[in-house]
Amino acid sequence: MSAQLEADVRTISPEMPAMFDGMKLAAVATVLYVIVRSLNLKCPTAAPDITCQDTPLNRYLLKSCPILTKEYIPPLLWGKSGHLQTALYGKMGRVKSPKPCGLRKYLPMPDGATATFDLFEPQGVHSTGDDITMVICPGIGNHSEKHYIRTFVDYSQKQGYRCAVLNHLGALPNIELTSPRMFTYGCTWEFSAMVGYIIRTFPQTQLIVVGFSLGGNIACKYLGENLANQERVLCCVSVCQGYSALRAQETFLQWGQCRRLYNFLMADNMKKIILSHRASLFGMSSSNMEAADLSRLYTATSLMQIDDNIMRKFHGHNSLKEYYEKESCVHYIHNISVPLLLMNSSDDPLVHQSLLTIPRTLADYCCQLLPSASGERSNREPLLTSLTASHKENIGHR
């Protein structure tokens, strides 16, 4: 029996190394396939897709900014993945982020809240010799101390721009709330107060309105709410916003591009911000929050649940649908008559492709002259441009 077993082993053993080599090759092939798919290495590069009317201003901009018409060549290996660009830039940005020096301003609001923004003076003279201020609205839960805002402000200062950066109400960890309310998806009160301060303090300045993600929604909604808000505004730039929270709601619950995971992570961050101000939001006698709302907050796993149980109640909205409809800039953006640049990335993990039909439709059909505040036709040439990059560049985070 022992001799027979030895014979069997001698017969089988020469075949085992070949089988293991085949398994190794299969494993390596599988890993390479996953890497190629996850990094989108086979995805072709292309120039940005620009939708705009053929006007002298648009032609001038396209001629002056050749980057808008050139093919975007991303960094090797990780440059074609929106996920890796977001993660790596987030890590590298914190290491290499500049630290511009600004002055923090505090603005009392009619409801008892205290808005804050940081003011950064220019580090040189603007090329035109004009006094121009960028009024900047960051993304969800963000403020002037975020690395992408610091990078943007530092570059803008060196080009001769003054910068005013809104700190979303409740976003700064060292600033306590003075009323039972924090920032929401489309509340323009704090942004309006900041712009008003800039206009009063610098009566000679002209404005460039800039918004990132949620901040893009607020900036466009602010301009579209009242034509008077567009006075002194040279142009508006919106970066990576979704335009309609109601339409984005369904896509944000899908697993495509890992949006459901991003939704969970962003909801977790929102919970931390809300709970850090628990005493102000739930403890004040004037608060609309109840103990049950706090309990539902702990179990929330998506931004929509937090919006429904907490955020919409700050402004008395009766339902999540009403909240999203009234706070989305899609209902106001067509009122904007100043030059408007809407920038989105075609591989943005958060903004679904279906949402990009909104800026494309506006750029195609809504570029007509609008009545001015006095009721007369404006003599300013409007510009509504939708620019969609082929691959996500490091232009901001939510």
Automatic annotation (TrEMBL):
The keyword Cell membrane applies. It is found in: Cell membrane. This is Monoacylglycerol lipase ABHD2. Its EC number is 3.1.1.23, 3.1.1.6, 3.1.1.79. Keywords: Cell membrane, Glycoprotein, Hydrolase, Lipid degradation, Lipid metabolism, Membrane, Serine esterase, Signal-anchor, Transmembrane, Transmembrane helix. It catalyses: a triacylglycerol + H2O = a diacylglycerol + a fatty acid + H(+); hexadecanoate ester + H2O = an aliphatic alcohol + hexadecanoate + H(+); Hydrolyzes glycerol monoesters of long-chain fatty acids; 2-(5Z,8Z,11Z,14Z-eicosatetraenoyl)-glycerol + H2O = glycerol + (5Z,8Z,11Z,14Z)-eicosatetraenoate + H(+). Belongs to the AB hydrolase superfamily. AB hydrolase 4 family. InterPro entries: AB_hydrolase_1, AB_hydrolase_4_sf, AB_hydrolase_fold, ABHD4. The keyword Ion transport does not apply. GO terms for molecular function: acetylesterase activity; monoacylglycerol lipase activity. Residues 133-354 form the AB hydrolase-1 domain. One of its GO terms (biological process) is medium-chain fatty acid catabolic process. It is a single-pass type II membrane protein. It comes from Sinocyclocheilus anshuiensis. Signal peptide: none annotated.
